[in-house]
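# step 3/5: fold
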Amino acid sequence: MFGIGFVVAVFYLWLNLRFAARNIDIVDGEGFFNKEFKHPVDASRTINVDISPRQLVFAIDFVIVVLSVIFALSISGQWDTYLRFRYGGSFGIADPLFGVDLGFYVFRLPFYELLQGSITVLTVSALAVLTFCTVFGRVSQSPPERSR
Protein backbone atom coordinates (compact mmCIF):
# COMPACT_ATOMS: atom_id res chain seq x y z
CA MET A 1 0.00 0.00 0.00
CA PHE A 2 2.90 2.36 0.71
CA GLY A 3 4.31 1.92 -2.81
CA ILE A 4 0.96 2.37 -4.52
CA GLY A 5 0.12 5.42 -2.41
CA PHE A 6 3.55 6.95 -3.07
CA VAL A 7 3.35 6.44 -6.84
CA VAL A 8 -0.21 7.79 -7.04
CA ALA A 9 0.67 10.85 -4.94
CA VAL A 10 3.86 11.62 -6.89
CA PHE A 11 2.04 11.32 -10.19
CA TYR A 12 -0.93 13.44 -9.07
CA LEU A 13 1.16 16.20 -7.48
CA TRP A 14 3.82 16.16 -10.19
CA LEU A 15 1.21 16.45 -12.94
CA ASN A 16 -0.59 19.35 -11.25
CA LEU A 17 2.45 21.28 -10.04
CA ARG A 18 4.48 20.84 -13.23
CA PHE A 19 1.57 22.14 -15.25
CA ALA A 20 1.41 25.16 -12.97
CA ALA A 21 5.20 25.61 -13.04
CA ARG A 22 5.06 25.93 -16.82
CA ASN A 23 3.02 29.11 -16.39
CA ILE A 24 5.58 30.83 -14.17
CA ASP A 25 6.51 34.15 -15.70
CA ILE A 26 10.26 34.69 -16.01
CA VAL A 27 11.12 38.09 -17.44
CA ASP A 28 14.55 38.78 -18.99
CA GLY A 29 16.36 36.12 -16.97
CA GLU A 30 15.05 37.60 -13.76
CA GLY A 31 14.55 35.19 -10.88
CA PHE A 32 11.08 33.89 -10.09
CA PHE A 33 11.20 35.15 -6.56
CA ASN A 34 12.58 38.64 -6.61
CA LYS A 35 10.92 40.44 -3.77
CA GLU A 36 11.89 43.04 -1.22
CA PHE A 37 10.09 42.80 2.09
CA LYS A 38 10.10 45.97 4.18
CA HIS A 39 9.61 46.12 7.90
CA PRO A 40 6.28 47.88 8.62
CA VAL A 41 7.76 50.21 11.24
CA ASP A 42 11.39 50.64 10.18
CA ALA A 43 11.64 50.91 6.37
CA SER A 44 15.45 50.69 6.51
CA ARG A 45 15.18 47.06 7.61
CA THR A 46 14.46 45.04 4.45
CA ILE A 47 14.85 41.46 3.35
CA ASN A 48 15.68 40.76 -0.28
CA VAL A 49 14.61 37.37 -1.59
CA ASP A 50 15.89 36.16 -4.94
CA ILE A 51 15.35 32.54 -5.94
CA SER A 52 16.20 31.30 -9.42
CA PRO A 53 13.74 29.25 -11.50
CA ARG A 54 16.01 26.21 -11.21
CA GLN A 55 15.89 26.41 -7.41
CA LEU A 56 12.13 26.78 -7.58
CA VAL A 57 11.77 23.62 -9.68
CA PHE A 58 14.02 21.76 -7.24
CA ALA A 59 11.95 23.04 -4.31
CA ILE A 60 8.71 21.98 -5.97
CA ASP A 61 10.14 18.50 -6.66
CA PHE A 62 11.30 18.25 -3.05
CA VAL A 63 7.87 19.27 -1.76
CA ILE A 64 6.25 16.70 -4.06
CA VAL A 65 8.43 13.90 -2.66
CA VAL A 66 7.89 14.95 0.96
CA LEU A 67 4.12 15.25 0.56
CA SER A 68 4.02 11.92 -1.27
CA VAL A 69 5.93 10.14 1.51
CA ILE A 70 3.59 11.60 4.14
CA PHE A 71 0.57 10.61 2.07
CA ALA A 72 1.90 7.09 1.48
CA LEU A 73 2.62 6.62 5.17
CA SER A 74 -0.93 7.57 6.06
CA ILE A 75 -2.40 5.33 3.36
CA SER A 76 -0.22 2.32 4.22
CA GLY A 77 -2.11 1.82 7.47
CA GLN A 78 -5.37 1.36 5.57
CA TRP A 79 -4.58 -2.01 4.00
CA ASP A 80 -7.43 -3.70 5.88
CA THR A 81 -9.92 -1.30 4.29
CA TYR A 82 -8.67 -2.31 0.86
CA LEU A 83 -8.83 -6.02 1.71
CA ARG A 84 -12.40 -5.67 2.96
CA PHE A 85 -13.28 -3.85 -0.26
CA ARG A 86 -11.56 -6.44 -2.44
CA TYR A 87 -12.80 -9.62 -0.78
CA GLY A 88 -15.96 -8.47 1.00
CA GLY A 89 -19.25 -10.14 0.27
CA SER A 90 -22.88 -9.46 0.78
CA PHE A 91 -25.11 -10.07 3.79
CA GLY A 92 -28.20 -10.85 1.74
CA ILE A 93 -30.17 -8.19 3.62
CA ALA A 94 -31.21 -5.04 1.80
CA ASP A 95 -31.25 -1.63 3.44
CA PRO A 96 -34.92 -0.64 3.79
CA LEU A 97 -34.30 3.01 2.85
CA PHE A 98 -32.01 2.76 -0.19
CA GLY A 99 -32.41 -0.90 -1.13
CA VAL A 100 -28.64 -1.51 -1.04
CA ASP A 101 -27.20 -4.67 0.49
CA LEU A 102 -25.75 -4.10 3.96
CA GLY A 103 -22.42 -5.50 2.76
CA PHE A 104 -21.96 -2.27 0.81
CA TYR A 105 -21.88 -0.24 4.04
CA VAL A 106 -19.45 -2.63 5.72
CA PHE A 107 -17.10 -3.50 2.85
CA ARG A 108 -17.38 -0.96 0.00
CA LEU A 109 -18.30 2.38 1.56
CA PRO A 110 -15.23 2.67 3.85
CA PHE A 111 -12.94 2.22 0.84
CA TYR A 112 -14.84 4.85 -1.17
CA GLU A 113 -14.54 7.23 1.77
CA LEU A 114 -10.80 6.50 1.93
CA LEU A 115 -10.45 7.34 -1.78
CA GLN A 116 -12.46 10.52 -1.41
CA GLY A 117 -10.46 11.68 1.60
CA SER A 118 -7.15 10.85 -0.08
CA ILE A 119 -7.96 12.78 -3.23
CA THR A 120 -9.11 15.71 -1.10
CA VAL A 121 -5.83 15.72 0.86
CA LEU A 122 -3.77 15.61 -2.35
CA THR A 123 -5.79 18.43 -3.91
CA VAL A 124 -5.47 20.64 -0.82
CA SER A 125 -1.71 19.94 -0.72
CA ALA A 126 -1.32 20.94 -4.36
CA LEU A 127 -3.39 24.08 -3.77
CA ALA A 128 -1.23 25.02 -0.77
CA VAL A 129 1.95 24.82 -2.85
CA LEU A 130 0.34 26.76 -5.70
CA THR A 131 -0.92 29.41 -3.30
CA PHE A 132 2.60 29.83 -1.94
CA CYS A 133 3.96 30.27 -5.46
CA THR A 134 1.20 32.70 -6.39
CA VAL A 135 1.57 34.84 -3.27
CA PHE A 136 5.35 35.15 -3.44
CA GLY A 137 5.90 34.99 -7.18
CA ARG A 138 4.51 35.99 -10.50
CA VAL A 139 2.32 33.52 -12.34
CA SER A 140 1.35 34.47 -15.88
CA GLN A 141 -2.19 34.00 -17.13
CA SER A 142 -1.04 32.83 -20.57
CA PRO A 143 1.46 30.07 -21.32
CA PRO A 144 5.03 31.28 -21.87
CA GLU A 145 6.25 31.60 -25.43
CA ARG A 146 8.47 28.81 -26.66
CA SER A 147 11.76 29.75 -28.34
CA ARG A 148 12.43 28.09 -31.66
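# step 4/5: annotate
The chain has four helices and two strands.
# step 5/5: archive (pending)
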